Amino acid sequence: MIQFTRLDHILISIPEGKTAEARAFYSQVLNLREIPGEHPGGAIWFEIAGIQLHLREEPGGSLSLRHPAFEVEDLAGAKHELEQKGVAISYSSDIDGRQRFFFRDPFGNRIELLEFTN
């Protein structure tokens, strides 16, 4: 049996030619720290809540329900900040013991933020 200990990184796709726009969104709107370096496939890496978020250009791109989910300490504050920066918020089914919402980055990637209530 595999015993997973933590989430290490998530890779999400961005359209070809959009690395600069992705870098601006993730560093300026979400205020994530970029991890410098020459990364495989021209990816850009960010530090988020003790894990790494990797973004890499790939062809294609239709909206998907795939997403990473990140726990936050102040869900209402995060929602307010994103809305102030023009990011649309959406909701899905309720889950006992947590509040959550979703948003999409400029490239259609779906991201969930959640806060445990118990």
UniProtKB/TrEMBL annotation:
This is Phage portal protein. PANTHER family: FAMILY PROTEIN, PUTATIVE (AFU_ORTHOLOGUE AFUA_3G15060)-RELATED (PTHR39175). Residues 6-116 form the VOC domain. SUPFAM superfamilies: Glyoxalase/Bleomycin resistance protein/Dihydroxybiphenyl dioxygenase.
